[in-house]
Amino acid sequence: MNSKVQSLKAFLGSAGRVALVEVAGTKGSTPREKGAFMLVSPTAILGTIGGGQLEYMAIDKARQMLFSPLEGEMAARRPEGVLTGGTTRASSTAATTPPGGFAATRPSRGRGARIEVDEVCATLDVPLGPEIGQCCGGRVEVLIRLVDAALEAEMIRTAEAEEAHLPHVYIFGGGHVGQALASTIALLPVHGVVIETRAEALEGMPETVETRLTAMPEAEIRIAPAGTAFAILTHDHALDFLIVAEALKRDDAAYVGMIGSKTKKATFRNWFLKSAEGSEAEFARLVSPIGGDAVKDKRPQVIAALAAAEIMTALVSHDTASSAARHDTHEKAVAG
Questions:
Q1: Which of 108, 145, 249, 325 could form a disulfide with 121 if both were Cys (CB 3.0 to 4.6 A apart)?
Q2: Whether residue 79 has pLDDT greater than 70
Q3: More confident residue, 104 or 112
Q4: Where on the phi/psi map is residue 16: left (φ > 0), alpha (ψ -120 to 50), or beta?
Q5: CB 90 within 8 Å of CB 165
Q6: 3-state SS class at 177
Q7: Phi, psi angle pair for 114, to nearest 5°
Q8: Which uninterrupted H or E stretch holds 302?
């Protein structure tokens, strides 16, 4: 399994000079939230702060800061460019701030933007209006810093902490839909796990998704972290039923979904209530078919996209509810 932390380490280890571009503040409607970041090297990019002209401007300024001292010194002998409207302010040192910046390359854009630069960091305060070709309407403050050893270590520690607290998504079954769902989940901020009884079904899974081969997949339910989302779509209906029954007994699950038809769901209900000692309240938590039935399309990729959206919605709702419950408990404890 190749985790997102490993991807970060690989980028930092191979990119050479790197700048960290981070959303430091937002006002109004913006493409990304505070804390969103990307890494910029002279030839590559990892991550995004929302795309569009804002991102292009930030990349341009970051790459100026990555110039060698000699290139920076030569470039800084030419005057800084001023964006249309005359509102840009830039203070810089000769060693790190090349000429013009994005102002020189995009003279008709950036009205109302402000740039402040020192030797190792730059701050861009940019209105997201028609002047830069974006219509979000808000304003974004972007902090750009050259990555040194201390900042690199801090970024890795933060990424490891965040990865340790990612919500888990367990996908039972590596068939066509399981493969498609795993590929979709791999793009999301979750820890994906695909569980199978067939070794060949685990071949070709995304590198960022964990795989587990086991003869008793239902046992994986019992050791899953609280707040896990379970998507059950194996090659065997009887196995599906066993796994779903186990998952519905986890009242701390964020989501329990089973692939299938209305008939399959009705058959499972009869078995669950009569033979598995299940209750109507537990059964009511089952989502089936996964992805809903509003879109009449059974292609695996379509089902996966709909199911992934459904799962993410459930994870966010569960996290919000859990946070609210923890807050209430804390408040009651403080109140005595």
A1: 145
A2: no
A3: 112
A4: left
A5: no
A6: helix
A7: -130, 135
A8: helix 300-335
- Phi, psi (deg, nearest 5) at residue 240: -55, -45
Side by side, the strands of the sheet bearing 19-27 are: 45-47, 37-40, 19-27, 139-146, 121-127, 114-117
pLDDT of 149: 93
**99 prior amide bond cis, ω within 30:** no
Region 167-180 average pLDDT: 97
For 100, left (φ over 0), alpha (ψ -120 to 50), or beta?
left
Mean pLDDT of 92-103: 32
At 114 the pLDDT is: 59
Look over the chain and give the mean of its residue pLDDT values, rounded to a whole number.
83
- Asked if the model's pLDDT at residue 276 lies above 90, the reply is yes
Tokens (6 digits) for 29? 């409607």
Q: Report the chain's terminal Cα–Cα distance, integer Å.
A: 46
Picking from 110, 132, 118, the residue whose alpha carbon sits closest to that of residue 51 is: 132
| CA 181 and chain centroid, separation | 16
